[in-house]
Amino acid sequence: MNKKILITGTLLGIIGVILGAFASHGLKNAISEASLRSFEIGVKYQMYHAFFLLVISQFSFLSSNNKKTILILTVLGIILFSLSIYLLTTSVLTGINFKAIGFLTPIGGLMLILAWLLLLFAILKEKNILFEK
């Protein structure tokens, strides 16, 4: 499970760097400032959660089941949150109106929150966490 989480986090990070560079160089003059800022928020959240996965893969107190659930929630959250933002903000370039998928963004955000809450509950439940004395 740890290797799968590490690979997923690494791939999300690689894609995040590519999309960040694309936004900075390719989209800068192609979409509005507001759309560019929104696109960058999608990239930021993708990168935050790439690091999140890399970190949780190393937590020995998390059960394999918890890690799997966190991985699923995080990946689905990034797909629904960040990908919907990418599509919505670049619709002027594609000519496709993605407004119909706008409701997916907050659902993705909720999944990311649930992943963090699951981590919190696992931490609170654990008695032998490495940072306790």
Structure description:
The structure is a single chain. This protein is mainly alpha-helical and 133 residues long. 77% of the residues lie in helices and 0% in strands. It has one domain (2-125). Helix 2 (33-56) packs antiparallel against helix 3. The two termini are 29 Å apart. One of its GO terms (cellular component) is plasma membrane. Belongs to the UPF0382 family. It is found in: Membrane.
Keywords:
133 residues; 5 helices; membrane; 77% helix; DUF423; DUF423 domain-containing protein; transmembrane; single chain; mainly alpha; transmembrane helix
Strand content: under 5%
How many domains make up the 3D coordinates?
1
Give the strand tally.
Answer: 0
Q: N-to-C SSE series?
A: HHHHH
What is the straight-line distance between the termini? 29 Å
Mean pLDDT across residues: 91
The number of helices is 5
Rg (C-alpha, Å): 17 Å
C-alpha geometry: elongated
Q: Give the helix/strand class.
A: mainly alpha
Percentage of residues assigned to helices? over 70%
Tell me the major beta sheet.
none
Q: What are the segments in which pLDDT stays under 50 over at least 5 consecutive residues? A: none
Quick recap:
The protein is an all-alpha fold and 133 residues long.
Set down the secondary structure blueprint.
Blueprint: H1 2-27, H2 33-56, H3 64-89, H4 91-94, H5 104-125
